[in-house]
């Protein structure tokens, strides 16, 4: 939902409640988006540390699979450009 700054100031409790129940709430200043109010849950989801790629692969259920990762020795094919 879009909130004008004056309305957001006068209805802060409702704004916070809606951000918690419905998701991020945008506040506009002079008709242009200025800030977003979001719940702590949404904020934490956006700012949690990402899993490093190496750790992701180490935890993969495919880690123990025998994959054929050898590159083909065939020459490349010709392509008309």
C-alpha termini separation: 50 Å
Range of helix content: 25-40%
Q: Which structural category do the helix and sheet elements fall into?
A: alpha+beta
Compute the number of helices: 4
CATH superfamily placement: YefM-like domain
Q: CATH topology, which one?
A: YefM-like fold
Please state the oligomeric state of the protein chains shown: single chain
Question: Biggest sheet, open or closed, and with what strands and sense?
Answer: 3 strands, mixed
What sequence of helices (H) and strands (E) makes up the elements? EHHEEHH
Q: Strand order within the widest sheet?
A: 1-2-3
- Which regions have little confidence, pLDDT < 50, spanning 5+ residues? none
CATH top level class name: Alpha Beta
Kindly state the mean pLDDT as a whole number?
Answer: 91
Q: Give the total of domains.
A: 1
* Portion in strands: 15-25%
C-alpha-based Rg, rounded: 25 Å
Please report the total strand number as a whole number.
3
Shape: elongated
CATH architecture tag: 3-Layer(aba) Sandwich
